[in-house]
Structure formats: structure tokens, C-alpha cells
Design brief:
Layout lengths: L7 E3 L2 H10 L5 E6 L18 E5 L6 H11 L3 E7 L5 H10 L10 E7 L2 H13 L3 E5 L3 H5 L1 H10 L4 E3 L2 H5 L4 E2 L4 H16 L1
Parallel strand pairs: 1-2, 2-3, 4-5, 4-6, 6-7, 7-8
Helix pairs in contact: 4-6
């Protein structure tokens, strides 16, 4: 704030909240945030209100589409490896809740598999690998991104069908994904900045 910028580009819910608390006058461009309406960051996507605008990363209401992809990838019981860390609860809880609205025509049951570190990721995936008819959904969060190579290697090792939130994972060897093009979201944020500055 001391630099008095004309506009701020920010990414992730925690950063957007911190910047919003620091200023109500400098325009803030979200470069992809998970469901900003549901998280109370903006009033609506069409009319965000306040000094925040930008693009949405993941719409938590799209759990059905991801579950549909999961069903095509294998049998009907999937676990969602969720990162458990103080301060990161609400977004992932909203994400998990979206699977409760999956249509009955999609025969996929999604349960949470909380993990805090690589050892717990290995234990959770090994357990899934021992259970017949299981699979994995890897959520759209920073923890999963940091440990994506571990997720990919372990799901291949245990022959588990897995759906990831980002297509970049598929380029690195993952089976399938359902989610936005991350690079495109950041490119699009430049158009918001351009309009604000003009």
C-alpha cells in the first residue's frame, strides 16, 4: 500500500482478503480465485461491487462435472484428498459440499481424505489402492499443486483412476482433469488491468 499502486493484481483467497482489508479504494483484480461469491469476496460475478473485479478460478457448483469425469475414469467410490491446515478450511469445505449436489444419475460417491504432508498423502493413496473400486479427486489448491508429482506418481503406482483440477497435470502424466486453463486466467487478468487504467 505504501507504493500507492494504481491497481493490484492478486491471487488466492488469503491474499485477496488481506489486500481487501488494506484498501477499499485501490482497484483489485483477482487472477483466479475459487468461487469468490460463495466466499463472500464479491456480491456477484456480474456486479462484484466494491473495489474487486477479475476472474473466477473454480466454481464450486461444478462438482457434478468433475464427478462425471471421475465416473468415466473408473468405478464409483472416490476420495478427495483435502489439505488440512488452519486458515484454509472454508474454500475446501465449499468444494467438498459441491459433491453433495451431484445428480443421482452420476453413480459416484465422494468422501474426504484429509492430509497434511507427503507422508499422509502416501498413506491415503496406498489405502485407496488396497480398496477395490476406489479412485481419487485432487482438489484445486496450492497444497495439491506443490505435491502434484507425488499425487501423479502414487496414483499410477497404485493404478487408481484420478481426476485433477488442472490440465497442466495431464501434461505431466496425470490421467484426466476438469478445470480451467490457469495460464489463460492470468493472461485475462491483464485485460482487466488495461480497462481499469484506461
Amino acid at each position: 500500500m505504501a507504493l500507492a499502486p494504481d491497481v493490484i493484481v492478486a491471487h488466492t483467497t488469503l491474499v485477496i482478503r488481506a489486500v481487501r482489508q488494506a484498501t477499499s479504494s485501490i482497484p483489485i483484480v483477482m487472477a483466479g480465485v475459487n468461487d469468490p461469491v460463495e466466499q463472500g469476496l464479491v456480491s456477484s460475478l456480474a456486479h462484484p461491487g466494491g473495489n474487486i473485479t477479475g476472474s473466477m478460478f473454480i466454481d464450486f457448483q461444478n462438482g457434478g462435472e468433475m464427478a462425471g469425469d471421475a465416473q468415466r475414469g473408473g468405478p464409483g467410490r472416490f476420495s478427495c484428498c483435502t489439505h488440512v491446515q488452519p486458515g484454509h478450511g472454508p474454500p475446501i469445505l465449499l468444494y467438498l459440499r459441491s459433491f453433495e449436489t451431484v445428480p443421482r444419475s452420476i453413480a459416484v460417491e465422494v468422501t474426504a481424505a484429509p492430509v497434511r504432508d507427503p507422508a499422509e498423502i502416501e498413506a491415503a493413496i496406498a489405502k485407496l489402492g488396497r480398496e477395490p473400486g476406489g479412485g481419487l479427486i485432487v482438489p484445486p489448491d496450492g497444497f495439491a499443486t506443490v505435491h502434484r508429482h507425488l499425487f501423479i506418481r502414487l496414483t499410477q503406482q497404485h493404478r487408481l483412476p484420478a481426476v485433477y483440477a488442472f490440465r497442466t497435470y495431464v501434461a505431466e502424466g496425470a490421467l484426466m482433469s476438469y478445470g480451467p486453463d490457469v495460464y489463460d486466467l492470468f493472461r485475462r487478468s491483464a485485460s482487466y488491468v488495461h480497462r481499469i487504467l484506461k
